[in-house]
Design goal:
This is Transcriptional regulator. InterPro entries: Cro/C1-type_HTH, Lambda_DNA-bd_dom_sf, SinR/SinI_dimer_dom, SinR/SinI_dimer_dom_sf, TransReg_Diox_bact_type. This protein is mostly helical. It contains 8 helices and no strands. Helix 1 packs across helix 3 and helix 2 crosses helix 4.
Length: 111
C-alpha cells in the first residue's frame, strides 16, 4: 500500500513524520493517516511533494517494485502515456478518472 511505502522511504531517509510533513508542506495528520492506511487515496500533488522531499520518483510510491518493472514494458504507446501523465500532472485523481470513464460508458450506451 502507498502508506507503507511512504513510511518505508521516510524511515530510510531518516526523517520523522513531523520533519517530512514540514519539509513537504503537508499536514502531519494526513501523513499519519496515510502511513496507517486510514487514508488510502492521496492526491498526485500530495505524493509529488512527499516524493520530492524523499528524493524518489513518485511512481515508487504508487507501485510496488514488481509493478514498476511492468511499467517499463507496458503496451501503452507514447500518446497514451502522455495523456496519462497530463491527467496526473493536472491533478486528476484515479477516482475522478474512473468516474469520467463510467460517465462516458453511460453516455455511449444512451445512444
Amino acid at each position: 500500500m502507498i502508506g507503507e511505502r511512504v513510511k518505508k522511504y521516510r524511515k530510510e531517509a531518516g526523517l520523522s513524520m513531523t520533519e517530512l510533513a514540514d519539509r513537504a508542506s503537508v499536514a502531519k495528520s494526513y501523513l499519519s493517516a496515510l502511513e496507517r492506511n486510514i487514508q488510502t487515496n492521496p492526491s498526485i500533488q500530495f505524493l509529488e511533494k512527499i516524493a520530492t522531499v524523499l528524493h524518489i520518483d513518485m511512481n515508487v510510491l504508487l507501485k510496488d517494485e514488481s509493478d514498476l518493472d511492468n511499467i517499463h514494458t507496458s503496451n501503452l504507446d507514447n500518446e497514451w502515456q502522455a495523456l496519462v501523465r497530463e491527467a496526473m500532472d493536472s491533478g486528476v485523481s484515479k477516482d475522478e478518472f474512473k468516474e469520467f470513464l463510467e460517465f462516458n460508458k453511460w453516455k455511449i450506451n444512451k445512444k
